[in-house]
């Protein structure tokens, strides 16, 4: 059995965060485990409240897993503050964990803070160098590089700049671009573009969490990075194509193993 761990926040409405990650791991035929960093009160209209967990219990959750189970890949999502980041980095380093995917979650789509702004530097300095892949969206890439990004060449330039911060591979996601949904992978030497038609739906809650979890699941299965990103792109596209209305706001994408053929 292939085993994948997510270290992230809980989304009570089940569309993003830990819940999206575990659904993705299952749909891709892997065994999912979770370390919860924070609990959000959240629905399809947005996040109304966040409580981070004590770093001690976060450390204990991670240790409980690593002391007992061989983990094939780790996805890191919402980490909220500097002390949580310090704890996660320390344990991942101690256990020499490979196949780490860092999704630098900063704010929710509705604008709620999921990473304290003063913790951005620690996230970049401590977690990026441990990552096989980091997956910023356009806005996160702008925050990290300090440059406006609205074209494919600007995404490539941002991917190069971000790769200097220590991650082996960078995927700048173009879900918020105009036109096709194109993602740019940079491996420190060359670029690869992953194109898909934009699915016309308002229901995209959880796309970012799902995409990074799918990359982690494919890395865990032994895929090289390019193949893992291609697999994740195909998976996210199917999940968005099957998105559905839920509640009164932005509905979730659908994790359904039968539409995934591999
Ligand atoms: N409407 C769409 N049609 C097809 N692909 C999409 C669409 N929206 C996003 N994607 C794809 O989904 C993945 C996640 O990208 P996105 O830029 O939405 O991430 P994100 O902003 O981190 O997500 P979130 O909105 O959950 O925070 C990427 O592969 C992107 O190309
Ligand atoms: C818990 C959580 N993590 C990440 C995101 C970003 O989509 C979210 N909305 N909620």
TrEMBL record:
Belongs to the ThiD family. GO terms for molecular function: ATP binding; hydroxymethylpyrimidine kinase activity; phosphomethylpyrimidine kinase activity. Pathway: Cofactor biosynthesis; thiamine diphosphate biosynthesis; 4-amino-2-methyl-5-diphosphomethylpyrimidine from 5-amino-1-(5-phospho-D-ribosyl)imidazole: step 3/3; Cofactor biosynthesis; thiamine diphosphate biosynthesis; 4-amino-2-methyl-5-diphosphomethylpyrimidine from 5-amino-1-(5-phospho-D-ribosyl)imidazole: step 2/3. Keywords: ATP-binding, Kinase, Nucleotide-binding, Thiamine biosynthesis, Transferase. It catalyses: 4-amino-5-hydroxymethyl-2-methylpyrimidine + ATP = 4-amino-2-methyl-5-(phosphooxymethyl)pyrimidine + ADP + H(+); 4-amino-2-methyl-5-(phosphooxymethyl)pyrimidine + ATP = 4-amino-2-methyl-5-(diphosphooxymethyl)pyrimidine + ADP. Residues 11-254 form the Pyridoxamine kinase/Phosphomethylpyrimidine kinase domain. InterPro entries: HMP/HMP-P_kinase_dom, PM/HMP-P_kinase-1, Ribokinase-like. The keyword Cytoplasm does not apply. Its EC number is 2.7.1.49, 2.7.4.7. One of its GO terms (cellular component) is cytosol. The keyword ATP-binding applies. This is Hydroxymethylpyrimidine/phosphomethylpyrimidine kinase. GO terms for biological process: thiamine biosynthetic process.
């Amino acid at each position: 059995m292939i085993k994948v761990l997510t270290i992230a926040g809980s989304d009570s409405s089940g569309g993003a965060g830990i819940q999206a990650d575990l659904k993705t791991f299952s749909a891709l035929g892997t065994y999912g485990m979770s370390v919860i960093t924070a609990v959000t009160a959240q629905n399809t209209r947005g996040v109304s409240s966040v409580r981070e967990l004590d770093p001690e219990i976060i450390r204990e959750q991670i240790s409980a897993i690593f002391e007992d189970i061989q983990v094939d890949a780790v996805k890191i999502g919402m980490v909220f503050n500097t002390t949580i980041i310090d704890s996660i980095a320390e344990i991942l380093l101690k256990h020499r964990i490979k196949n780490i995917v860092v999704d630098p979650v900063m704010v929710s789509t509705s604008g709620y803070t999921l990473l304290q702004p003063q913790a951005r530097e620690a996230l970049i300095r401590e977690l990026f160098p441990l990552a096989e892949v980091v997956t910023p969206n356009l806005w996160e890439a702008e925050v990290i590089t300090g440059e406006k990004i609205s074209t494919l060449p600007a995404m490539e330039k941002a991917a190069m700049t971000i790769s200097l911060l220590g991650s082996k591979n960078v995927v700048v996601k173009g879900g918020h671009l105009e036109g096709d949904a194109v993602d740019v992978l940079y491996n420190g030497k060359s670029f690869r573009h992953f194109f898909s038609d934009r699915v016309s739906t308002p229901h995209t809650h959880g796309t970012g969490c799902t995409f990074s979890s799918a990359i982690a699941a494919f890395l865990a299965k032994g895929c090289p990075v390019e193949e893992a990103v291609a697999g994740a792109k195909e998976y996210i596209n199917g999940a968005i194509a099957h998105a559905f209305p839920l509640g009164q706001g932005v509905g979730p994408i659908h994790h359904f193993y039968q539409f995934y053929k591999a």
